[in-house]
Amino acid sequence: MIENPNEVVTKAILRLVQVPGLDKPAALITLDNGFDYKKPNSFGPGGLKSLDEAITAATEADPAFIAVTGKPYIFCVGADITGMPLINSREQAVALGELGHRVFARLRSSTIPTFAFINGAAMGGGLEVALHCHYRTVSTGAAALALPEVAIGLIPGWGGSQILPNLIGIINAATVILQNPLTQKQLRPKQAKEMGVADALFEAADFLEDSLAWAAGVVKGDVTVERPEIERKDWDGVLEFVKAMLDEKLHGAVPAANKAVELLALAKTASFEDGTAAETEALADLILGDESRASLYSFDLVQRRAKRPVGVPDKSLARKVTKVGIIGAGLMASQLALLFLRRLQVPVVLTDLDQERVDKGVGYVHAEIDKLVAKKRMDEGTAAKLRLLVSGSVDKSVFADADFVIEAVFENLDLKKQIWAEFEKIVKPEAILATNTSSLSITEMAADLEHPERVVGFHFFNPVAVLPLLEIIRGEKTDDATLATAFEVGKTLKKSSVLVKDAPAFVVNRLLTRVTSEIFQAVDAGTPLDVVNVAMDPLGLPMRPIALLQLVGPAVAYHVGETLHAAFPDRYVDSPNLKRIVDSKLPVMVDKEINPEVVALLEVGDAPLTADEVRQKALDGLAEEIRIMLDEGVVAEAQDIDLCMILGAGYPFHLGGVTPYLDRSGTAEKVTGKRFLADGVANVRS
């Protein structure tokens, strides 16, 4: 078994606990790596060895029962992925799988009753070790319960694919193992109890005491745990449906998903030993694959680099924000108001051209707060406080004491310049002026102001509450205090912020528009819309190009395209067919199909491309544009490009965002003469 010198070993600490009503003590094993919840427990070779030793010691003590729990807020979040890049042979991968299986199986095969007290986050191998126990309790405070392996190019490799379907049924197991990871969802404690993942649900405040008492009741026979018999007649049909859905969405681009389906099928009739042996073989196949390496790279970006943005001034320069002003009261502005209100919990004031629009914006915020209360995601006390903090006015003087002002009006440079010229005379000299522009120049926007140094780009992605990326754009004169304040605000908003140079359309929109430009060049040349729409399918992107155009809105896409065509006419075309679609105001998609009325509008040439040719042109365009952006210093490194595409455009983990795929497909070297990540994905650490 390969050793990881960087492993933060999660120790399994054993203590014997007297439980009222039992003649013998209970053996309580606590998983703890010695750090607080910010560095969760995980299982590497050292952690598995410690657990193995603790189970041995617990068994020798002949307790009434053995229970495994975690440190405060954390049970265990799975395998130690920092060791994954060190695995460079199939034998090492097999050894890792077999080690986990051997240690966890001791809890499953124990003649002494075993319990998992899931007190906090339990993911991957952490949830799997709990599944091996005979019984499970879960705390209402457990923040994350999941088997997320498919999302990082792997499968539940320590028993999850075999135990779970035989515990909660094939439909629920497919939800946890496939649907949730691919849609970035997790189980809540109540859901885990309702599904049967856990046998009992207890409040966080007295969780350990209640779990010990409940376990004692089970051991004495006072508590009976009933589990329904698993229905098997529809097993195959469910998996056929799941496979069809995966083919439709991913088009075979995620091998781990298909492998997980195979393992779930095996779980119907295979012995546990045969099923887990198949898990180990599948894990060994996947762990050395391109998709897994890229997925782990993506995971590292999201978990580490996103929390340590590059090039940010010291936070000691940041100014305190005690009031926020929002210029505009439309949908985007109202979403921003709700976000600032919930996260900063300071007064937020909206303004617009007339009272009707202002009232509508404030009304939207109140309605969304009411929805959160109804869904029990916010208590009434907090809701009442937030309702009092949000207000609106057509009198712009209410912005005089605001510390942070953000505009969210129509994408027109002259309009935005006019707004800032007016508001600069109202707000205090040190107030930050932020713009939510998606493509316009921050430098030009601030050029005529008395204090251009306090203007910063603050580009959110829609829907604001869901997408985590925030592009923070530094204009030529934006000073360090403004930038430091912007990043501290972004952090408080719980967004992943990336520092971007003031360049046309910044990162995500620039790259998505380059793809759109290449696709519509193909359309203009004579390629049918239905061909270009499936061209990117082998990549497993979250949306096909024409469906994405419908979501963004043809008018918005065309406007951003115009901005980029003006800046880079040699690379971004002004497509006459896209203009026809915009002018028609027709929906591009109808009932998930391309609108035939839109097809009839197009005027195309006589040089159509194949889907493969369209895809390669789009990839070549991406490679060229990314290299230019890096040479221009739009972001610090290729990792920032990938982080933006993952968090802002939904590009999948299995691609590594985009640059690892361009590297391994040979596109980067063919187009630009070199790779983006010189040492390869496996060795990239942000």
Q: What is this structure, in a nutshell?
A:
In the central section; belongs to the 3-hydroxyacyl-CoA dehydrogenase family. The chain is α/β, with parallel strands linked by helices. It has 27 helices and 19 strands.
Q: What is the general shape?
A: globular
Structural class: alpha/beta
Helix residue percentage: 40-55%
Instruction: Count all strands and give the number.
Output: 19
Largest sheet data: 8 strands, mixed
Radius of gyration: 27 Å
Keywords: Fatty acid metabolism, Lipid degradation, Lipid metabolism, Lyase, Multifunctional enzyme, NAD, Oxidoreductase
Catalytic activity: a (3S)-3-hydroxyacyl-CoA + NAD(+) = a 3-oxoacyl-CoA + NADH + H(+)
Pfam families: 3HCDH, 3HCDH_N, ECH_1
Domain 3-hydroxyacyl-CoA dehydrogenase C-terminal: 506-585
